Amino acid sequence: MDESTLGLSAEQLTKLLRIGRQTPRSEGPEESVLEESLRATLSGELSLDVSVSDSLPAILCRPCGELRGHTGRSAIELLTDPGVDLAALRTLKDYAKELVKRGRSEVTRTIATVLYYAAIASALAFHGERITQHNLKSLDSSLAQLLEEPWMVPDLVGLLERAREVCREQLEGERTQRNT
Q1: How far from the centroid of its chain's Cα atoms is residue 162's Cα?
Q2: Which of 9, 34, 73, 76 is a Cys-bridge partner for 42, taking CB atoms 3.0 to 4.6 Å apart?
Q3: Distance, CA of 89 to CA of 67 (rounded, Å)
Q4: In this predicted model, what pLDDT tens digit does every residue of 77-126 receive, in sequence order?
Q5: Do residues 145 and 17 touch, judged by C-beta distance below 8 A?
Q6: Which residues, 6 or more positions from 25, have their beta carbon under 8 angstroms from its beta carbon?
Q7: CB under 8 Å to 144, separation ≥6 — which residues?
Q8: How far, in Å, CA of 9 to CA of 134, rounded?
Q9: Residue 26 φ/ψ, nearest 5 degrees
Q10: Are 78 and 70 in contact, with CB atoms under 8 Å apart?
Q11: Is the distance from CB of 117 to CB of 97 less than 8 angstroms?
Q12: What's the CA gap between 87 and 90, in Å, rounded?
């Protein structure tokens, strides 16, 4: 299984990133469900309760020491805080990856995909680090697709845009290095 694509085919990833594109935002109930679910997921407090099957430790099957200092904070607070360390962002990314695999509905898998890329975007935007095996060109393309979604919440737009800027800067740096 290719870890860089969450074990999903290119076609499946594209489908997840294009949900809701067929109709305008105001007309599609699917978009409003996605947007509302994404807002709820981002604004909800992260649970570290091991007795809840959907909690981070249960899904990751390992202690979440990386997130202990962030108890009581929401996912959006962690994703948009430049002070959150890479270990916590990797934990969120891994959590989202598991949700993509285990999600029972298209909405859950789509939201998990957004969380996955948002954690990667946060690491890029605030630390200049890539916490995924995706190459920069592929990552930039995926972030661009997310930004085009009519249901994308404004809270993530700036983060995704900044991560794209870092992708392009790093790609340009790689090109410059190759040419010298």
Answers
A1: 14
A2: 76
A3: 9
A4: 999 999 999 988 998 898 888 888 888 888 888 998 999 999 999 999 99
A5: yes
A6: 31, 150, 151
A7: 164
A8: 14
A9: -75, -20
A10: yes
A11: no
A12: 5
- Please tell me the distance from the alpha carbon of residue 102 to that of residue 96, in angstroms, as a whole number: 10
Most confident range, picked from 15-19, 67-71, 134-138? 134-138
Contacts 24+ apart (CB under 8 A), 45-48: 45/72, 45/73, 45/74, 46/70, 46/71, 46/73, 46/74, 46/75, 46/78
Torsion angle (degrees, nearest 10) of CA 79, 83, 71, 132: 50
**What SS3 string covers 78-129?**
HHCCCCCCHHHHHHHHHHHHHHHHHCCCHHHHHHHHHHHHHHHHHHHHHHCC
User: 3-state DSSP call for residue 68?
Assistant: helix
Instruction: Quick: pLDDT tens for 7-32.
Output: 666 666 665 665 544 444 444 557 88
- Are 20 and 149 spatial neighbours (Cβ–Cβ below 8 Å)? yes
In the Cβ-directed half-sphere of 160, how many Cα atoms lie within 13 Å? 23
- pTM to 2 decimal places: 0.74
Cβ neighbors of 77 (< 8 A, separation 6 or more) are none
